[in-house]
Amino acid sequence: MKWDYTCKYCGIDTKKGKDNFYGVTEELWNQYGVGEGMLCLGCFKKRLGREFTKEDFVPCVLNYFVNPIVKDIINPTEEERKSLWKKNN
Ligand SMILES: [Zn+2]
């Protein structure tokens, strides 16, 4: 089966662009996510019902380097970036 990248909520294609690639904590996803499905960042925020904070996102390459919106929210420090690389290598 092909992985479905459409947002379960608004139906946009989440693999277009980089804004909808992100990783939130398991706790948040269990509460506001859609299980195995995808949610665009905008819809996730709507379900969350508040502004994102740095703590909502897990340290991963997507959040720190790929997604410009999330990167802005997290604004990872040099140290955080380094520890992420260490973890991945
Ligand atoms: Zn959506």
TrEMBL record:
<protein>
    <submittedName>
        <fullName>Uncharacterized protein</fullName>
    </submittedName>
</protein>
